[in-house]
Amino acid sequence: MNYVGSDAEFRHITTMRLKKMKKRGEKIACLTAYDALTAGLLDEAGIDLILIGDSLGNIVQGHETTIPVTIEDIIYHTKAVVKGAKRPMIVADMPFMSYQVSPEEAFRNAGRIMKETGCNAIKLEGGKLVVDAIERLTEAGIPAMGHLGLTPQSINIFGSYRARGRSEEEAKKIYDDALMLEKAGAFAIVLEKIPAELGKKISEAISIPTIGIGAGPHCDGQILVYTDMLGLTVDFNPRFVRRYAHLADQIKSAVINFSDDVKNKEFPNLDESY
Ligand code: KIV
What we know:
- By secondary structure, the chain is of the alpha/beta class.
- The protein has helices spanning 15-24, 36-44, 56-59, 71-84, 103-117, 131-139, 155-158, 168-184, 196-205, 226-229, 247-263; strands at 28-32, 49-52, 89-93, 121-123, 144-149, 188-192, 210-213, 221-224.
- The site of 3-methyl-2-oxobutanoic acid has 10 residues, from loops.
């Protein structure tokens, strides 16, 4: 089988395909997922990229931050997503302290995540500090996605989830970091909660796709946490979340109906019995 020069043979979306999409001005639709069932639905709906975000710490595990998420947690959920989805590119988040110690440790952990799960790429947060790690991973065949702007793993330094890059100095740092990540070999960069103008400037300056979350309409793609856009997480209301459904309400009313039917002896009826 000849894999050279074409991604047609691959069953899933590749880094090359994402780059081509940017070149053609075709927007990239991305969502998070943490399990096979959801991943399958996103795949059937035509999502291009699924991220097993360390947001699973908040959404699945109930933590206040993403800090406690472990490599084992990411591996467990990524394995499930890989089983559920065929076409989208599958990107696993590297959890806090799995890549900061040294490029070698980042390499070992990223390699383990890829080998054990079958994901196509990993994502890691930060600018200048992760440049060496991204170089090491890329050289060794592990596609790396950057993440700039609001980086939730640094919550204990910043003390809040406010937007980043509003001051000239912070905007310049994020811009410079984006150029550095591209040079190091990153195949795409998530830009989180930064002014739309900065998102535009970065997207125009680099040849790899930018994936925005609260970074304005000029990014090459957009990502949301799937539970936010489906209205499953209702107490998280940043400006950048658009609700495409209100599933929390629907689930609660279905459960109330079920519970009432059981208590009123209306479920099951004879047709639902053997
Ligand atoms: O962990 C996550 O879900 C993320 C996205 C919000 C980009 O990093």
